[in-house]
Write the C-alpha cells for this entry.
Amino acid sequence: MRRLLRLVPPGTIGVGIGLAVVGLASYVHLALAGHNLDAADYSSLSVLWSVVFTLGIGVFFPVEQEVARLVAARRTRGLPPGPVLARGAAVAAAVLGLLLVLTIGAADLLTDRLFGGDAAMVPALGGALAALAVAHTTRGVLSGLRRFDWYGTQLGLDGGLRIGLVAALAVTGVDSPVAYALVLVAAPLAAVALTAAPIVRTVGRGPAVPWPPLLRGLTLLTVSSLLAQVVVNVGVINVRLLDPTDVATAGALLSALVLVRIPLFVFGSMQAALLPGLSTAAATGDEPAFRTLLRRSLAVVTALGALGGVLAALFGPWLVQALFDTPDVLGHADFAWLSVATLAYLWAMVLGQALLARNRHHAQALAWTVGVAALVVATLPPLPVALRVELGYTVGSVVAAVVMVTLLRRRRTAPPAPPVAAPVPVATSGGAA
C-alpha cells in the first residue's frame, strides 16, 4: 500500500475519495428521484441535470484550471492568492451573468420544450449554474494552494449533502421535480461554505493579476471543455427536442448514461496526474516516455471501458429498472451503443490531454468541434429517437478521438513548459459538480 501511495501524486487519494462520494451521490439522487417522480417529472429533472452539467462544467471548470495555475505560480514566489481569486471570481461572475441573461430570455422556450410546462424549473436551473460557478472558482484556489485535502473534502461534502437532502425528500414523500433540482443548488453552496476556512486564512493582498495571464488560453479551454460536455451530455436534451412527448426515453437514457459512465469516475482519480506527466515528457523532449505514458493511459481506459461496457450491455436493462424505476424502453443493444461511445470518449479524453501537453489548445478545440459536428450529422437520420442519440454520442466521440490521433502525429517545433498539476473532475453528468 505504501508503495502504491508513493506512485501517485500527493492528494490523488483524497480527491479520488471525494469524486467517489460525488459519483455515489449522483446515483442516489437519480435513483430516489426516479422512484418518487412520475415519468414526465423525472424527464424534466433529467433534462435540467444534463443542461446544468453540460454548461456548468463546460464553462466553469476552465476557470478553475486557470485559477489553480496562477495561484500555484504565485505560491512558488510567496505571493497570496487573493488577487487571483478576485480575477477568477470576476470572470466566473461575468460568464454566469451571461448564462442567466440567456436563461431568462429563453425562459418560455425552456419551460415549454424542456421542462414540460413547469416554469419553476427555470430559476432552479439558474441557481444550479450559480452554485457551480462558486464551487469551481473556490476549488481552483484550493488546488493551486495544493490543499488537496480540502479539495477532496469539498467534493465529499457536496456528495454527502446531496445524498442526505435527497433522502430527506424521499422519506417525506416529496414528489416535486423542483425540490430535487434545488438539491443541486444547496449542496454545492453549503460545501463551499464549510471548506472556506483555508481560503479565507490565506487570501491576503498582493500585486494585482494582469488580465492577459488569466484570459490567455481560457477561451480555447472553454471551447474544448464545453464541446466535450455537449458530446457526453446532449443526448438527453436531444430526446426532448426530437420528440417532446417521449418522456420515458429521456429519463431512461439519463439513468443508462449514469451506469455506463462508471469508468469515467474511475478514470477521474488518475486524470490529475496524466497531464503533468505528459507535459514533463514533452517539455524535456523525451518522446519515448511521452509515448509510453500515452500508450499505458490508453490501455488503462480501454480496459476500464471494455469491462464496464460488457457488464452494462449484459445487466444494464435490468439495473436501470431496479435502481431508477425507469420504464422498460432500453434494451441490451442500447447499452452496447452507449458503452462503445463511452470507451471512445475515454480515448478522446486521454488524447486531448496529450494535445494540451504539447501546448496545442487549438488542436484539441478543433477535434471537439469536428466531433460535435459529426454528432449532429449522425443524429439527423429518421431513426428511432433512442438510436439517433446513441449514434450521435458514439460517432461524435469516435470522430473526436480520430481527429486527435491525426493531429498528434504532427510534430511541433518547440516543447512547452510543463503546467501546474491540478485535479480534474470527471466529465460526466454530475460527476464532480
